[in-house]
Specification:
The chain is about 55% helix and about 5% strand. It is mainly alpha-helical. Strands 1-2 form a two-stranded antiparallel sheet. It is globular.
Length: about 190
C-alpha cells in the first residue's frame, strides 16, 4: 500500500464516530433491539469490540485465528462497555498506525489478506454499525460523507456476495433518487 494516510484517516474517523455513539448509550438502552436481527445494543457493541480486539494479534503479531484461540470471544464488555470500547479502539488505532502495518498480511479464518484491506473492512463495518447503533438509541443517523463514500466504494464490488456470507440480509432496492447513505444501507440489507 503506497499511501496509508487515507485509510488511516478513515479508520480514525470511523472509530471516533462509532465511539461517540457508544458514549451516547443510556443505561436503560443496552438491551434495546437494533436493526441487526437478534442483536441488542450490547450485542452490537460487543461485536465491534471483538472485531477491534483481534487487531493487535492479527496485524502486529502476525497470529492466526487458531493461534489467538478464544481469547477474544465471549463477553468482552464486562461491567463497563464504554471503557471496553475505548481500550480496543485505541489499541486498533495504534497498531494500524505503526510503520508498515498496512503492508503486512493478516491470517483470517477464510484466508490471508493484506492488512490494508482488512482495515478497510473494519472501517466499513464500523460505518454501517454506527448507523445501526444510532437507530437503536435514537441518535442522529446521518453518517459522515467521507465514511459514506469510502464504505460505498468498499461494499459495491462485493454486494452480490454479502447475503451469501450469512452475515447480511438481502440487499434492498434503493428508491429512485436515493442519496449515498440510503444506497449504502440498501446494499447491506438495511431498511433506512
Amino acid at each position: 500500500m503506497s499511501d496509508p494516510q487515507p485509510i488511516l484517516a478513515r479508520q480514525a474517523e470511523a472509530l471516533e464516530f462509532f465511539g461517540r455513539r457508544v458514549h451516547a448509550v443510556h443505561d436503560d438502552q443496552w438491551e434495546a433491539p437494533t436493526p441487526c436481527t437478534g442483536w441488542s445494543v450490547r450485542d452490537l457493541v460487543g461485536h465491534l469490540v471483538s472485531e477491534q480486539a483481534w487487531v493487535p494479534a492479527l496485524v502486529r503479531d502476525g497470529a492466526t485465528v487458531d493461534g489467538v484461540g478464544d481469547s477474544v470471544e465471549g463477553d468482552l464488555l464486562g461491567s463497563d462497555p464504554v471503557a471496553a470500547w475505548e481500550s480496543v479502539a485505541e489499541a486498533s488505532r495504534v497498531v494500524f498506525a505503526e510503520p508498515g502495518a498496512l503492508d503486512r498480511t493478516v491470517h483470517l479464518s477464510f484466508g490471508d489478506m493484506p492488512a490494508g484491506d482488512y482495515c478497510a473492512q473494519l472501517v466499513t463495518d464500523l460505518t454501517v454499525h454506527a448507523w445501526d447503533l444510532s437507530r437503536a438509541i435514537g441518535a442522529d443517523e446521518q453518517l459522515p460523507e467521507d465514511l459514506l463514500s469510502f464504505a460505498v466504494r468498499e461494499v459495491t464490488p462485493h454486494a452480490a456476495e454479502l447475503e451469501k456470507s450469512g452475515l447480511f440480509a438481502a440487499p434492498e432496492e434503493p428508491p429512485p433518487g436515493a442519496d449515498v447513505q440510503t444506497k449504502l444501507l440498501c446494499l447491506v440489507g438495511r431498511r433506512p
